[in-house]
UniProtKB/TrEMBL annotation:
Stretches assigned to coiled coil: none
Pfam families: LytTR, Response_reg
Sites of 4-aspartylphosphate modification: 53
SMART domains linked: LytTR, REC
One annotated GO molecular function: DNA binding
Ranges of residues in domain HTH LytTR-type: 176-208
Protein name: Two component transcriptional regulator, LytTR family
InterPro entries: CheY-like_superfamily (IPR011006), LytR-like (IPR046947), LytTR_DNA-bd_dom (IPR007492), Sig_transdc_resp-reg_receiver (IPR001789)
PANTHER family per UniProt: STAGE 0 SPORULATION PROTEIN A HOMOLOG, TRANSCRIPTIONAL REGULATOR-RELATED
Domain Response regulatory: 2-113
Keywords, ordered alphabetically: Phosphoprotein
Organism: Mucilaginibacter paludis DSM 18603
């Protein structure tokens, strides 16, 4: 993973660089003392993971992350615990408090690596699922459904309910949610529960175990927290 570190304190930069060099799959591509320098690095090369301080002169870390349109994975490294809620509201991978013990740093890196591999897997398989529609058997008919019409999909053992925008009646088809998931574009559709999959285009909000999709609220499972982090990263 290509890493960027941002901190206005030279010693903090040195410590972060030393820790990154101890992690096998991490490669440092830039170290910056200001957000302006960091923006230049992001413009010039690909960055997968950013370690970012919060309290910095000028634009702080929170403002910087909010400004990113294409957001890499983010780990905040700060001396201020009071920003933790704001940090996690931005769906960052982790929030580390200085001074950071190496085992805690490594735990955050492993979490970021897992998310990175998940993202890479979804990106690599995306070209295989590029169709803009699918066909489902329902009521003895073969129905063509546009992907963009689908708000969310509800799994019921060997059946699914496909909920459509502007329609009060879902399409019911004899197919498992897992089999249907394998037919849909991975950058648009996200499995958030063993029984639910959502179309990112129709997601309005996320709060405490619930996701608002179109006019419905559906649950998401703790087992899919990494997927939620990946999905919400695409919402920014």
């Amino acid at each position: 993973m290509r890493c960027l570190i941002i901190d206005d304190e030279p010693l903090a930069l040195e410590l972060l660089e030393d820790n990154i060099n101890k992690v096998g799959n991490m490669r440092l591509v830039g170290r910056c003392r200001t957000v302006t320098q960091a923006m230049q690095v992001l413009h010039d090369q690909t960055v997968d993971l950013i370690f970012c301080d919060i309290q910095m002169p000028g634009i702080n870390g929170l403002q910087f992350v909010r400004s990113l349109t294409k957001k890499p994975l983010i780990i905040f490294v700060t001396a201020y615990q009071e920003f933790a809620v704001d940090g996690f509201d931005l769906d960052v991978v982790d929030y580390l408090l200085k001074p950071v013990a190496f085992d805690r740093f490594l735990k955050a890196c492993n979490k970021a690596s897992g998310l990175f591999e998940l993202l890479k897997m979804r990106t690599e398989t995306a070209p295989e699922r590029s169709k803009k529609y699918l066909f489902l058997h329902s009521d003895y008919n073969l129905i063509k459904i546009s992907n963009q019409e689908i708000t969310y999909i509800e799994g019921l053992k060997d059946y699914v309910k496909v909920h459509l925008a502007g329609s009060a009646k879902p399409v019911i088809s004899r197919i498992t949610i897992k089999a249907l998931e394998e037919q849909l574009p991975v950058n648009d559709f996200f499995r958030i529960h063993k029984s639910y999959m959502v179309n990112l285009e129709h997601v309005h909000s996320i709060r405490k175990g619930r996701i608002k999709v179109a006019d419905s609220e559906i649950p998401f499972s703790d087992n899919f927290k990494d997927v939620i982090t990946l999905m919400t990263g695409k919402l920014h």
